[in-house]
Structures are given as C-alpha cells and as structure tokens.
Design goal:
The protein is an all-alpha fold. It has 5 helices and no strands. Helix 1 packs antiparallel against helix 2 and helix 2 runs antiparallel to helix 3. The relative contact order is 0.15.
Length: 152
C-alpha cells in the first residue's frame, strides 16, 4: 500500500504541477507579470480542489478547501516564480501529499501508515491551530528559502 500511495502521489503531483505551475503560471507570468500570475494560478489551484475533494456545493468545506489548497498553491506558485524552476514547488507539493496521504492515511487509498484507532476529530481552538500551522509554516519555510520578492 505504501508503494501504491507513493506512486499515486507522484502521478497526481506531477500532473498538477505541470498544469498549474508548468503551463498556467508560466504563461500568466509572461502575459501579466509575477504577482498577478501567482494569484491567478493559486486561485485556480484552490478552485480545482473543490472538485477533486468533492466539496463543491457545500459552503463551509469549500471555504476550508480553498483556504488550504489555495494558500498552498500560492506558496508553490511563489516558489516557481522566484526560482524559475518547477523543482521546488514539485518537491514541496510531493512532500505535503506524501505526508498527508501516506503517513497520516488521509488520502484516497485509505489506511497506510498511521491509522486512527478512536478518539475524536479536533474541534474549536485545536482545529484552528492546526489550520494556522498548516497554512503558515510552509509559506514561512518557502520564504526563508527564496528570500526575495517576485520579479515583475
């Protein structure tokens, strides 16, 4: 199952990176500049995940999915625009998906590594803290890595 999960993550990340950073963002940067291109690409990435996560039509999940995936798309688009390479966003995206899908067994292949054996889903402040950490730590790490603004 672990190898199936890795293969699934490789295929999905490769496809998404080629579409949203390798093609869409590349063209947007050429036509509109870095800042607009990054924002449009990140928005498209967040909206795409409404459908891939099956959240479309449910307002609260749509907001959550858009914030999480849209902000991650923003980080990966920024990494692409700054480095002018797809390798950093690919690595960040693959790492995120591999940990989420394989390690924490939250992906489409089900239970793989860490499996919940009971308990309750986090609520309230703990859930918000988890969201804040997952939304702000990757951008911070990316910013520390690249350190400069996007070229216009």
């Amino acid at each position: 199952m672990l190898l199936d999960s890795v293969w699934y993550d490789l295929k999905s990340v490769f496809t998404e990176e080629l579409i949203y950073r390798g093609a869409l963002l590349y063209l947007l940067i050429k036509k509109l500049g870095g800042k607009k291109g990054v924002l449009i690409s990140a928005t498209a990435f967040g909206v795409y995940h409404w459908f891939s996560f099956g959240a479309f039509g449910n307002v609260v999940p749509m907001i959550y999915v858009f914030l999480l995936t849209g902000l991650m798309g923003l980080v990966w688009a920024y990494a692409f625009a700054k480095t002018e390479s797809i390798m950093l966003p690919f690595g960040l995206h693959l790492g995120w998906n591999a940990i989420n899908n394989g390690l924490f067994s939250k992906g489409p292949l089900g239970e793989i590594a860490l499996v919940s054996t009971g308990g309750t889903e986090p609520e309230g402040a703990i859930m918000i803290l988890g969201l804040v950490i997952s939304v702000f730590v990757p951008p911070l790490v990316t910013w520390l890595y690249v350190r400069h603004g996007i070229k216009e």
